[in-house]
UniProtKB/TrEMBL annotation:
It holds the Pfam family DDE_Tnp_ISL3. Residues 67-188 form the Transposase IS204/IS1001/IS1096/IS1165 DDE domain. The lineage of its organism: Bacteria, Bacillati, Actinomycetota, Actinomycetes, Mycobacteriales. This is Transposase. InterPro entries: Transpos_ISL3 (IPR047951), Transposase_DDE (IPR002560).
Length: 193
């Protein structure tokens, strides 16, 4: 079957959309423009396909020991009164750590806060929360608070990208402080520091 009954797009086009968004990291706008389609149609197709992938598995949370939590800017422009353009992305990282396969998208929840993650964790049974050993995240205090509340036994770990980013920021601040201390000014591109 090429497309579901009543579908506006074929399964092949939806797959192409997901590949552009997930693999090529194209924006929804750029993907829609490449296809000559509207932003809302492409966005809704991607959301629906993700929901189907997530909810097709009757036990999507079985075996999840390492949970990845991060935010993603789903929409880069926001009009006054519109809801947050952030989503909290939840990923099963267990297969990547055990080298048994790729990471698996578990869910995407609108917003990014302690409450968003706390509600998501509480919506799942205690057995799932008990099996979590590690939760990786960025430095957002809200996520750490939600993990402390929802899965206190899990080890909280900052993901590698954010560790490197934080270290680079601290190194830059240190270099700038030394530069100002030595020369009394901010420094130029050609300075040795």
């Amino acid at each position: 079957m090429c497309a579901d009954d009543g579908a506006k797009l074929t399964k092949r086009v939806v797959r192409w959309i997901l590949q552009r968004l997930a693999i090529d990291r194209m924006s929804v706008s750029a993907t829609a423009q490449a296809l000559g389609l509207g932003w809302e149609l492409v966005n809704n197709a991607a959301l629906q396909a993700c929901r189907e992938m997530v909810y097709r598995d009757p036990t999507p949370l079985a075996g999840v020991r390492i949970l990845g939590v991060d935010e993603h800017v789903w929409k880069h422009t926001r009009r006054p009164g519109e809801p947050s353009c952030y989503v909290t992305v939840l990923v099963d990282l267990t297969p990547t750590v055990t080298r048994s396969g790729p990471a698996r998208l578990l869910d995407m929840v609108p917003g990014r806060s302690a409450d968003v993650l706390r509600r998501w964790l509480q919506a799942h049974d205690p057995g799932f929360r008990a099996q979590l050993e590690v939760v990786t995240m960025d430095g957002l205090t809200g996520y750490a608070t939600a993990v402390d509340d929802g899965v206190p036994a899990a080890r909280k770990v900052m993901d590698p990208f954010h560790v490197v980013h934080l270290a680079a920021e601290k190194l830059t601040a240190c270099r700038q402080r030394v530069q100002r201390g030595l020369t009394g000014e901010r420094g130029k591109k050609t300075d040795p520091l």
